[in-house]
Amino acid sequence: MKSSSFPLIGWLLFIGVWIYLPYWVSAFKLLLYIEILIMALLATSFNLLFGYTGLLSFGQAAYFGIGAYVCGLMLMKISSSFWLAILVGVIFATLSAFAIGFFCVRLTGIYFSMLTLAFGQMVYAIAFKWYDVTGGDNGLVGVPKPTVSFFGLISLDLASPLYYYYFVLVFFILSTFLLWKIVHSPLGYILRGIRENLERVNFSGLEVKKFQLIAFSIAGCFAGLAGALYAPFASTVSPDVVGWTKSAEPVLMTLLGGSEVFLGPILGSWLFLLLKDYIISHTDFWEIYFGVTLVFLVIFLPGGVMGFLRTLWSRIARGGRRIGV
Amino acid sequence: MAFLFLQFLNGLNYGMVLSLISSGLSLVFGVLGVLNFAHGSLYMLGAYGAFTFLQYFQNLSMGFWLALLLSVLSVGIIGGIIEIVFLRPVYRRPHAYQLLLTYGLILILDDLVKMTWGTDYKVVPKPQALSGSVKFFGDAYPAYDLFIIFLGPLVALGLWVLVYKTRLGMFIRAASLDREMTDALGINVPALFTLVFMLGSCLAALGGALVGPIRTVSPGMGINIIIDAFVVVIVGGLGNLQGAFLGSLIIGQLESFGILIIPRFNIAFIFILTAIILITRPQGLVGKARI
After folding, report:
1. pTM score, two decimals?
2. How many Å apart are CA B159 and CA B177, to the nearest integer?
3. Interface of A with B in 276-305 (CB under 8 A)
4. Helix (H) or strand (E) run with residue A236 in it
């Protein structure tokens, strides 16, 4: 199955499952699914950099955190409009990603990863220390659940998990669709070219750095959106959402699901958060399970669950002839 | 004046601890090509190991040093196992996967520490002989902290002699430059890699065992130090021993005096410096003189 021929039917099925989901799960689990949607958006935007452009950013939590902090501050101090708060949060995250990315794309490989980590920790340090604005180590406490109105026609009180779920779902579907369009546009093919062979893209007269920066900014924009949607949901925004352990989450999710398939990070977030939820309810030590999973994945299944299924599928389809992974 | 001098000593003290950690980190990167995220966790194991062994030797006069030695050796063995089991399969993979694998090791080691020792802070007593203090300009400075300041350069010097003046060091440097060629010359490169990783682990554990009496021994200590060690190796130059030493001196002083100059944003300041170095001289201050 070629991923680019993912048809309309596939999209409708995908959307349908998410729309019907609240009818299958308990009200308590619905909260978990809101988080899964938010993190799936973060992971999918991260994969635009990692899976498509070949850039491992270890600082995506910075843009997620900026989106969350700015949106939370807007709702707490400036306006009760969620639309405005989301917009401002996304703008801040995108501009930060553009400014930081401007320096990061100058470096390659491990140096790029280190610099994204350093900038991420810088943002973390500011969130941690700037008490007057961010509340320091306590964070923003009591971000209100807003009431959103659609052109004054209907108003929804997002204090209800069901409404919040659908509100996030609309953003999630629109964003994944946009990202899907991006990776299957000429820009997407250039990014893949950069991943596969940087020199060749350079020789063909395209400015690699410029396209890497575009990808970095787009990823930052959607990470900021995920953060903005997260702030009222969590009602507390603490520096933890900016730190490097948070930056590791989309990376883990993407690897788990598979970075070479568009839906991989979404599957990965779903698996990751369900597993985490299950493990936490049974033991105090959940990190070790993820550590073991991660080590196993890197050594045995670098393509993640999706990559594994795809290899299996092509083996069956080709009558058992081995193909290189 | 006296106050500033004590701050300077504190900076040196932290710098020397960082030097122990980052020299191992840099050595492993220079030879094996793996930037080991879990290096801080090995440092933490060194501290917990010293704490545990010390409980058996409480009544011995040399108990502290014995515990330190045993801890360093144990972590060296653990390092050897890690290299053979986890790192060998990923040498030919992209850097991203090596980073992720060692990140997975952090998660495993940190939880194992919590399971074994709990989450409360552990107190490691100072060795008897160094429990006093030395006076500078009328102010007292702990003898034990001073001992670390003197030990740091000695260890760095020892490592330098090992890598640059011995036959084994020559093999190590050869393997870091051209693995295949060294292999073809009949040197057992896989064993050499294991040995280098063990050496790096020992250095990290030595740092951890030494800081037991002066810093808190708790499950978060590995995470806190690894970020600083990354900063050091980036400032000095990845995979460069002299760079790691110089970087440690700089970061130690910055941590010490940064708090005085910009009390609130001193952590941000360190990362701004890192970013500036990475942007202007990605090869670091000392440059790319490979191991």
Report:
1. 0.83
2. 18
3. 284-285, 287-288, 290-295, 298-299, 302
4. strand A236-237
